[in-house]
């Protein structure tokens, strides 16, 4: 996979437009990959503090789950569509459809929900 060859490059894909969001969601849906979307803002300290944690999760689930980060100030249309009103907000999608939403910087709860999402995915790591 590309990510493995890129070494230190982020495994969390940055979404910088509605078109970028649509592309990543469509690609993940075609691949049968669930999505963990981290809605963030540069001015939100708890959101920024979650970035290394999201990288850690993305590394753990690199072959089964797509991880996206969306700055709500840059991509207002997507944040509005999913009614993101507080940061950080984590939206979990399966087949392009939201299946879970978590508001706040709670690493333990996020880890549990991502693990559950991975276990419900038929393309789990063998």
UniProtKB/TrEMBL annotation:
One Pfam family linked to the record: Thioredoxin
InterPro entries assigned: Thioredoxin-like_sf, Thioredoxin_domain, Thioredoxin_H-type-like
Thioredoxin domain segment(s): 1-119
Gene3D superfamilies hit by this protein: Glutaredoxin
Annotated coiled-coil segments of the chain: none
UniProt name for this protein: Thioredoxin-like protein CXXS1
Organism (species): Nicotiana tabacum
Protein encoded by which gene: LOC107816468
């Amino acid at each position: 996979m590309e990510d493995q060859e890129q070494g230190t490059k982020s495994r969390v894909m940055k979404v910088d437009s509605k078109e970028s969001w649509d592309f990543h969601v469509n690609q993940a849906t075609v691949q049968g990959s669930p999505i963990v979307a981290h809605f963030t803002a540069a001015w939100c300290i708890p959101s920024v503090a979650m970035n290394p944690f999201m990288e850690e999760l993305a590394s753990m689930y690199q072959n089964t789950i797509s991880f996206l980060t969306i700055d709500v100030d840059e991509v207002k249309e997507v944040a509005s569509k999913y009614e993101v009103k507080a940061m950080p907000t984590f939206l979990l999608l399966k087949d392009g459809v939201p299946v879970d939403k978590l508001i706040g910087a709670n690493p333990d709860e996020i880890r549990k929900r991502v693990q559950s999402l991975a276990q419900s995915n038929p393309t789990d790591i063998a």
